[in-house]
Amino acid sequence: MTKYIMISFSILLANFSFGASPDNKFDLTMSHILKNYLVIQENLAKDSKADTHILAKKIYEDSKKLLISEAPKKLRPHYKNTPSQIQSASLELSNHTLSLDKVRNSFKILSRAISNWVEMAEPKGVQIFYCDMAKSSWIQKTGVIRNPYFGKQMLSCGEEIKHKGGHNHPHN
Question: Which of 14, 15, 59, 61 is the most exposed place for a label (fewest CB within 10 A)?
């Protein structure tokens, strides 16, 4: 199973791009966090919490490196709570004894914090979706909807949220 996870992670890394390299340390660290997040999202869409605690620990360690002073100056007020929100949610997700339902609930909080950054930085290769049934959004690689909150039960439940210039989305 771990070999499969690593192959999936490699495929995600190949498909995810920031466009040009991030020009600040905040965005660079967030792009590392997003890569681990995307593996968790895909696993949850498959009704699996495999390696979630390991990936969450990596997210937690990266989130400790997030310094608001390293974000673009005009975005600092927008990102001010992002590091602490990511730390809190990833720390909870790092508990390997959580049930799949509890992992999904913690993932909602992590998704909210990371989507805050995705909305502003607009990394290429990812989209934000919202599921009205789960009352939450998530980020995933561009493509077919893969709902992490209901998995196989309602894999395609959700709608894409528009970015800048698009409609406002219900923020969970």
Answer: 14
With CA atoms as reference, report the closest residue to 109 among 56, 160, 155, 159.
56
CA separation for the pair 21, 141 (Å, rounded) = 18
Residue appearing with tokens 């894409």: 160
pLDDT higher than 60, residue 156: yes
Residue with the two structure tokens 């409609």: 167
pTM metric for this prediction: 0.83
- What letter represents residue 61's amino acid? E
Q: Which residues contact 132 (CB under 8 A, 6 or more apart)?
A: 158, 159, 170
Model pLDDT, residue 34:
98
Q: For residue 169, what are its two tokens? A: 């989305």
The pLDDT confidence band at residue 3, using thresholds 50, 70 and 90, is: very low
SS3 152: helix
With both helix axes pointing from N to C terminus, report the angle between 52-63 and 25-45 in degrees, rounded to the nearest 10: 160
Q: How far is CA 69 from the centre of its chain?
A: 22
Residue 48 neighbours by CB under 8 Å, 6+ apart = none
